[in-house]
Amino acid sequence: MTAAAQTNTTQLLIGNRWSDAAGGATYADANPATGGPLAGVAEATREDVDRAVRAARAAFETGKWASMAASRRAKIVYRMAQLIAERAGELALMEVRDNGKPIATAKGELGAIVDCFEFYAGAATKNYGDTLPAPMPGYVAYTVREPLGVVGAIVPWNFPLLLASWKVAPALAAGCTIVLKPAPSTPLTALALGKIALEAGLPEGVLNIVTGSGADLGQWIVEHPGIDKIAFTGSTATGKRVAAAAAATLKRVTLELGGKSPSIVFDDAEIDAAVAGALYGIFYNAGQTCEARSRLLVHEGIYDRFVGAFKERAQRLRLGNPEDPATQIGAITMPEQMEKIRMYCELGESEGAKRLFGGVPAHLGDGLERGLFWNATAFEALPSHRIAREEIFGPVVSIVRFKDEAEAIALANDCEYGLSATVWSQNVGRVNRVARSLRSGTVAINTPYAVFPGVPFGGFKQSGYGRELGFETMRLYSETKSVLTYIGVKPVDPFGA
């Protein structure tokens, strides 16, 4: 086992200065794979949030970022991409130790993070308005896109740096200033991003980072009257509370929430490819992803063959030390998440679902005895079982059989979520019919990959609203201003005064 990172004490980034929390308090951050300490993390208070918002508001109101030429903003955002790329190795290792994901996964994410910053660096100069038809003779009308203001970005623990980039990059490109709050259990790469932002030349107060372990910190960011928009990724239950609290000050809100996404395997699918893709769709990041394809819907004609192959290959997946490049399933990030996974596995069996494999924690040696690991797990389930309907957020898949295309669509849509879906079939007509029928923000055809910079990502139904990653995301960090100019010769005198 690789030695744990040296324990240190972190600070908050407010107004381009690193400082302790107002009360000087810290909390402990640990490596989920070893249980060993990583850092003492600054425990921010409401007073610290107030300071961060004042810094962001001052940066916005003075126009040092919002009024900067878009081409200059683009250069700074692009410089951040370059610095992230240069430090990808150390950032990936930091993410592994803080989150528990495999190093191979973390390295892949770093590539996507660089792509995200590069994409929005290019978008900064293309946030166009429109020239409008004249509303009446003698007028010119057009719109401009202006930065929305101060953004409160609240990031979850499953993809700490990746999901921070989804919010920070477009907000910066649009000219907004930011107060970023990482998840309490995974704050380290967000703080590293702050250091990169300063080195890239971001003006004072444009990006502020506050860390803390209490729910009241995020709540105050959502309620704060000095914040204009909330960009939140997390559970649907928390998202509902965010939306309700933000409504009191009429904040703009983007919510990327939960999912219970289906992977639909038809009888004409290429079985080997579908098995490989379905394995990745649920066991990637130990199933701790909102777009995990955790419902596996399989046509009855190939059900036994598919499930047999899926079971055999799943049990060959390598679970272990996240720092080992050969590891495919790493640690569960938090103890409470382990208990949630345990609860759902026990619930599944009590409901009558058939456990095919897994369903228990994994106990590893070689320095990982205190680590949080769960074996890859699959149940044969009915659509009514809670494990086939509720988000588990772990390496647990529910397999359900269907008889025809209509039933597959009905089963896929019979869910409160609508984030992602995958369709496996060689019939071009079928995959397009099904894709159009699914109530899902993203549909992938014959591939488990569904998330790329430039492709809008977000959900239908209770998976949230708004989109991230696409160009249209720039609109969500902007306001539309209409400008009407009278160019006629005679003065406008409606009253004839």
Mean pLDDT: 96
Share in helix: 25-40%
Name the CATH superfamily assignment of the largest domain: Aldehyde Dehydrogenase, Chain A, domain 1
Tell me the major beta sheet.
7 strands, mixed
Query: Which fold name is given in CATH as the topology of the largest domain?
Result: Aldehyde Dehydrogenase, Chain A, domain 1
Summarize the SSE layout with pairings.
Blueprint: E1 8-9, E2 12-14, E3 17-19, E4 26-30, E5 37-42, H1 46-61, H2 70-86, H3 88-99, H4 103-123, E6 131-132, E7 139-147, E8 150-154, H5 160-174, E9 177-181, H6 188-200, E10 207-209, H7 215-223, E11 229-233, H8 236-247, E12 252-256, E13 262-265, H9 271-283, E14 295-299, H10 303-314, H11 335-351, E15 354-357, E16 377-380, E17 396-402, H12 405-413, E18 417-418, E19 420-424, H13 428-437, E20 442-445, E21 460-461, E22 464-465, H14 473-476, E23 478-486
Parallel strand pairs: 1-5, 8-9, 8-11, 9-10, 11-12, 13-14, 13-19, 14-17, 16-17, 19-20
Antiparallel strand pairs: 2-3, 4-5, 6-7, 7-23, 12-22, 15-16, 18-21
Describe this structure in words.
The protein is an alpha/beta fold and 497 residues long. The longest helix is centred in the first third of the chain and has 21 residues, at 103-123. The protein has 14 helices and 23 strands. The chain has two domains: 8-257 and 463-482, Aldehyde Dehydrogenase, Chain A, domain 1, CATH 3.40.605; 262-445, Aldehyde Dehydrogenase, Chain A, domain 2, CATH 3.40.309.10. Strand 11, helix 8 (236-247) and strand 12 (252-256) form a beta-alpha-beta unit. Strands 15-16-17-14-13-19-20 form a seven-stranded mixed beta sheet, with helices on both faces. The radius of gyration is 24 Å and the shape is globular. Helix content is 36%, strand content 20%.
